[in-house]
UniProtKB/TrEMBL annotation, chains A, B:
Gene3D superfamilies: Winged helix-like DNA-binding domain superfamily/Winged helix DNA-binding domain. NCBIfam families: HTH_metalloreg (NF033788). It comes from Arenibacter troitsensis. GO terms for molecular function: DNA binding; DNA-binding transcription factor activity. The keyword Transcription regulation applies. Residues 20-115 form the HTH arsR-type domain. Keywords: DNA-binding, Transcription, Transcription regulation. This is DNA-binding transcriptional regulator, ArsR family. The keyword Transcription regulation applies.
DNA sequence: ACTTTATTTAAGTATTTGCTTAAATAATTA
DNA sequence: TAATTATTTAAGCAAATACTTAAATAAAGT
């Protein structure tokens, strides 16, 4: 009879703290999943460095196709990580300052590691 | 003739800073990609809270299958995010303190959001 | 030695993700 | 208003991811 059991006290404690933290974990996880893609992390990083940039800039910088860049941008806009401002034909994207307790730390670490 | 061009000064500057930061971005991105999965983020979070836990505990806490938990653990072990210590049949996993400038911030934020 | 428990590993499958090409919007310029 | 530029959106596909079931390894208990 296979009845694997974790340490009872510990697991019930964890299940309880999971209850209170579950939504926070889910929310942060979404941000991490977005930042956990090289193209998107680069986009975020350059927005941090430059303030605002248009899709067309990213196409040049990252050497990727237009729709590919646009689709990555969309995902980040959908969860409110970035916003846009239109100036004629071009859309300027920038970081939404808010989420960024986590992301700022990521950017800081990227700059610190520099070779 | 379609010749989309980003802002020349900006894009060349970005291409340069990308050169110096590329490896840092790639490295951090791997950690974020791992943490950007709910199961793994929960595993990391509970390791932070409890110090050390065995796969069997996570099966109970997260209500997932044994191999599924084990495979998630493996990925994090492979990049050195966690380590193990054996005690009889059971393996105790814990966080490797090192990477964690980024992860610690994530954990702090999870606890801060609490409902 | 045989059985049980804890865990991993392997193989197969379904879902998700990230790209591509093609078409649609939107603003500008001729 | 027709052509050009900037961008998005949609559809299709290939690669990656996360699960499942089944088999393998490892330590203990009987």
């Amino acid at each position: 009879m296979y009845a694997r059991r974790g340490q009872p006290k510990t697991t019930t404690r964890c299940r309880e703290t999971q209850g209170t933290n579950s939504e926070a974990i889910t929310a942060i996880c979404k941000v991490l999943a977005l930042a956990g893609n090289e193209t998107r992390l680069r986009i975020l990083f350059f927005l941090k460095e430059e303030g605002e940039l248009c899709p067309c800039d990213f196409v040049d910088i990252l050497e990727m196709s237009v729709p590919s860049v646009s689709q990555h941008i969309r995902k980040m806009k959908d969860v409110g990580l970035i916003t846009s401002r239109r100036e004629g034909q071009t859309l300027y994207y920038s970081l939404v300052q808010n989420h960024n307790e986590v992301l700022d730390n990521v950017f800081a670490k990227i700059q610190k590691i520099k070779r």
